[in-house]
Amino acid sequence: MVKICCIGAGYVGGPTMAVIALKCPKIEVAVVDISVSRIAAWNGDQLPIYEPGLEDVVKQCRGRNLFFSTDIENHVAEADIVFVSVNTPTKTQGLGAGKAADLTYWESAARMIADVSKSNKIVVEKSTVPVKTAEAIEKILTHNSREIKYQILSNPEFLAEGTAIQDLFNPDRVLIGGRETPEGQKAIQALKDVYAHWVPEDRIITTNLWSAELSKLAANAFLAQRISSVNAMSALCEATGADVTQVSHAIGKDTRIGPRFLNSSVGFGGSCFQKDILNLVYICECNGLTEVANYWKQVIKVNDYQKNRFVNRIVSSMFNTVSGKKIAILGFAFKKDTGDTRETPAIDVCKGLLGDKAKLSIYDPQVTEDQIQRDLSMKKFDWDHPIHLQPMSPPASKQVNVVWDAYQAAKDAHGVCILTEWDEFKTLDYQKIFDNMRKPAYIFDGRNILDVAKLREIGFIVYSIGKPLDPWHKDTLAVA
């Protein structure tokens, strides 16, 4: 029986290995992690991450050919293929601080693999890593090999949270990069054979190592660039009276452009986009490509601008102050159908409002109060380190109240902000919400999911990103 071990039981490692176990019943899959609490959650009734369909997959395989364990060294030693899916946070100090990826955890994993291995292994990069990381890993393994042979492959993930299980069941493509040597090609074929259990062969793409590593960064940079492009247009739409939804629909009909990732919003979030672009910027700078680096920097600048613009619109609408005013925040996760809050725009919006002394009442159906308080207290990039190295949970902020009901969040509020596009927010009784709010009552739709005309009929003053402005807002133009 082929044995696979994945180091890292997070958003990538857990779901990916669960689906491999489901689709490959003759392969034994072990997911290992140093976090005792995380492994306990994977083995329990309440999984550590929320992802539609994941629980069903795990329950079908767990204990049969899918195992979650903290016994890292034994599982690595026994494995034929070792996936490494550890954190690659942005460096916060030293060379490349604020841009470069910190490969501390990757290097530790590589050294541990070298220490415990007693047989030849295929080591697979599953984390998003900088180009040429494989070369560094090869050097560590080769210099500590004790006659054991290693082949390094790059197999980046292209999952979208909220649809990760379906993405794994039916991927656009599986990308495998390896050395262009007989041994490298043999390793590529071994990993292809795993995916071939359910992925059509024409969707399994093979490249050299460097192309595979760069393709992941490039894919995320291109997707983020589309979001920043439409968000830049949303500001122009508001200034001219155009409707960004209509503009997006019109340009999306061009088959060369297509409709995906053209929804204007308060900004992109998630664990990958900003981090990968910063990494790309750093690599460009290191290779003397200043103009290319500046181009990708602008994608992040526009994203920050969009969040700042949203906060400024809220404050300027409310007579240039939200001090002491209750603002309801509906949605804290970075997108619907996930509990993930990494780099969510809600953090920056909430911090901006708290900076003006607002009182926040926050509701999200999948994010806990502890997570919200942690996110609002953490420094930038702290979230990307293993949880035992993150700051301890802070005392609850008196300005922040987390509730488990949208109506409670909005009761006696001056304004409501929609920051995650949860379906339930589309069907709330907004007449009831209006009746229980202070007047004038404001709604700031950061996801463009509400019927603006109906809300205005009820009596709300509505701001929806990229839509023609309410007369109220035309007199209170906010520039970030």
Would you write up a description of this structure?
The protein is of the alpha/beta class. It has two domains: 3-199, NAD(P)-binding Rossmann-like Domain (Rossmann fold, 3-Layer(aba) Sandwich), CATH 3.40.50; 220-475, Rossmann fold (3-Layer(aba) Sandwich), CATH 3.40.50.720. Helix content is 42%, strand content 13%. It is built from 18 helices and 14 strands. It has helices at 13-23, 36-42, 54-61, 72-78, 104-116, 133-143, 164-169, 182-195, 209-240, 244-252, 273-286, 290-317, 345-355, 369-377, 406-410, 430-435, 452-458, 471-474; strands at residues 3-7, 28-32, 66-69, 81-84, 121-125, 150-154, 174-178, 204-208, 326-330, 359-363, 400-402, 415-418, 442-445, 461-464. The strands form three sheets. It has a six-stranded parallel β-sheet with strand order 3-2-1-4-5-6, sandwiched between helices. It has a six-stranded parallel β-sheet with strand order 11-10-9-12-13-14, with helices on both faces. Strands 7-8 form a two-stranded parallel sheet. Strand 9, helix 13 (345-355) and strand 10 (359-363) form a beta-alpha-beta unit. Helix 1 crosses helix 3 (54-61) and helix 11 runs antiparallel to helix 12 (290-317). The protein is globular and about 75 Å long. It starts with a strand and ends in a 6-residue tail after the last helix. Pathway: Nucleotide-sugar biosynthesis; UDP-alpha-D-glucuronate biosynthesis; UDP-alpha-D-glucuronate from UDP-alpha-D-glucose: step 1/1. Belongs to the UDP-glucose/GDP-mannose dehydrogenase family. One of its GO terms (biological process) is UDP-glucuronate biosynthetic process. Its EC number is 1.1.1.22. It catalyses: UDP-alpha-D-glucose + 2 NAD(+) + H2O = UDP-alpha-D-glucuronate + 2 NADH + 3 H(+).
